[in-house]
Amino acid sequence: MKHDHRSKRSDREPQSNHDKLQRALNDSKRQRIAERFGAKFSPPHPDMPLDVEAEWLDNIERFEEAALSAERIRIREFLGNPAFLDSKDLSPEQLSQEIEVVIALLEDNNIRVDCLSDDVSDEDFYKFLTTELMDQEIEDLRLEGFTACFIYEEFHPNNRMDIEELSRDFFWRLFRRDVRFIDFLFAKKGMRDPDGRPITQDAAIEQMKQWINSIAVFTTHTTAVRQCDINGDSAVLTVDTSWTGLDATSLAERSASGESIFKVQRLNGHWWIVQMTIAGFEWRERKSSK
Description:
This protein has 8 helices and 8 strands. By secondary structure, it is of the alpha+beta class. A hairpin with a 2-residue loop joins strand 5 and strand 6 (about 235-245). Residues about 1-15 have low confidence and may be disordered.
């Protein structure tokens, strides 16, 4: 038994040292890529295995190295200047089939195009694929494992979809009790509490953390968008919300049901939360400074 215990311990320690070394190597490589190529990285995902992250960084560096000397050409040239049928000459069924043909051609050449909204008609999407997308420039290189990715909404923003996605991201983090990146959702300036009083981003995040820490676990939760009113660069989103959970201190059941209201503002092309009322979330009274 004593020998087995020592064996298990020795198995764990080298692995821990290996992880520390690999993490340091990954951080060094990320910094080198950023300094040399101007790349910008989000914080590494905590669930990503270190060896997978290392391979990912190797691939990025390999691509950036090749891109330095690669010529930029239009996608239509990259594809060999294909000819496309005019959407006016196609029936609805033919239009759907031609979209699949174009998508297949793009994928065969390591180009992926996604359309996130159900509101885009086949005619509009087909026109985008065969005209607007074809004029976009990419590096004239082909590397195994690399795909050039485009999203329709990056060219034709869908404000309602973006605002609803913002709220989904918020609730996803909330019910997972994960506030590590919640500052990516809150406006840096102009935030207000539910009563309309100014509040800093840091203060809002601290209040969220205190509330989340008061709940040991969320056991059930549902959200459904009821209404989204957009007025220029401002919008109000109403979400029917219900949840149950266990109190962190007593483990007694806690629950709430009602409206969650987000007031959001668009700045530099992105939507940010500037004010919110969340079902069951009571903002703590803040002491006024004298």
